[in-house]
Amino acid sequence: MEKTHHPEGGTAGAAPRRRSRRKAGVAVAAAVVVVLGGTFTYFNTNVLDSDRICHGWTTPDEAAAALGGGIGRVSASEDSDATCTVRVSSWLPGQDKRLSLRAVGEETEFPFSRGDWQISGDRHVLSGGTQGAFDAYGGWTLLPTACRNAADGSGTQPVLRAAVTGRDTAGDADAMGRLLTSATPALSAASYCGEPADADTTTDAPSAAEPSDLDRVCGISGFRLPRAQGPKGQQVTAEVTGSLPKGLYCDLTFEGDKEGPFARLAVVSDPALVASFKGRDVTRAECDGRETVFAQDLRYFDDSERAVTHVPAAPEFSEVFGDAARAALQCG
C-alpha cells in the first residue's frame, strides 16, 4: 500500500503508531503503580484481628512499634498458652523482624538474682503500677503472683518477658516500654489472674556512662571510693537510672572493660521489688515511711586484684554504700 508523506517528512501511518506507543506506555506505568500500590497495601495491612494479638496481650501496632516501626506486615504465632511470636515482614531483603513474648515463672529473688541482676543503671526502669526494666532489645515486667498458673517454668514469680530476636537486631526502647506496660494488665485480664494496680506507672531513663566522681559515687553524697581504678589504671564510669527518693540503680564499670560492670548498686523502695529481697542479708531502713533496701552485686576480686583496683570487699563496700545512702535519704 502506498504511504502518504507529510511535509515534515513523516508518513500518514506514523502518527497512530506513536499514539499507540504512548497509550501502551501509560498502561504499563499504570500497571506498575497498581502493582506497587498493591504491594504497599499488602505489607501494611494486618491480616489478623486489628484489635488484639498474642492471646489478647497486645496489638499489631504496639508490637510493630516495639520492633522499630517501618513498613511491614504484622503476623503472630501463639506458640503455647504462655508464649507468642510476632513477625513484621517486609519485601526488602533482611528486613524481617521478630518479637518474642513469654509469660515465665522466675525464682523469688528475681530480678535481683545473685550475679544476674535484670534491673540496673543501663536500662529504663518501671515502677509504681507496673514494675520492670527494658531497653531497645527487650525487657520484662512483674505479673501478679496469681498469674503463676499462666506462666511456663518452675519459678514462683510470674514475669512477662519481651525480646527482639535476631542477631544484633534492636527495636525502639520507648515503644518497648509502652508495649510492656500495656501488655502486663492485658495478660492479667486475659488470664483472669489479677487487676491493674491503682498506682500510675512511672518510667526512669538511664543516664549516659560518664566518669564517676569518686567522692560522690552514683551521685550519692558521702559515698566515696577514693582510690578505685581498673586493673590497668582505667577510670571508673557510672550509669544511673532513677533517684534516691524513687529508687536508684547504678552500674560502676572500669572504662573499656569488656566484662561489664564490676558493681551494680540499688536503692529499692517499690514494695513489689523490695519483696524480692525477703529473707536475704541486705541493708534495710525505714525511709520516708517506706521500707527501703540498699543492695549491691559485686564482681569477685582476689587479694591481688583488690590491691590494684582498691575496691573494698563486700562487707566494707556494703557499709560505705548503705551508710551514705541512708544519710542522704535521712532515713530513721
Automatic annotation (TrEMBL):
Q: What parts of the sequence cross the membrane?
A: 24-43
Q: Where is this region: Disordered?
A: 1-20, 194-213
Q: What ranges does the record list as Low complexity composition bias? A: 194-211
Please give the superkingdom of this protein's source.
Answer: Bacteria
UniProt keyword terms in alphabetical order: Membrane, Transmembrane, Transmembrane helix
What is this protein called in UniProt?
Answer: Uncharacterized protein
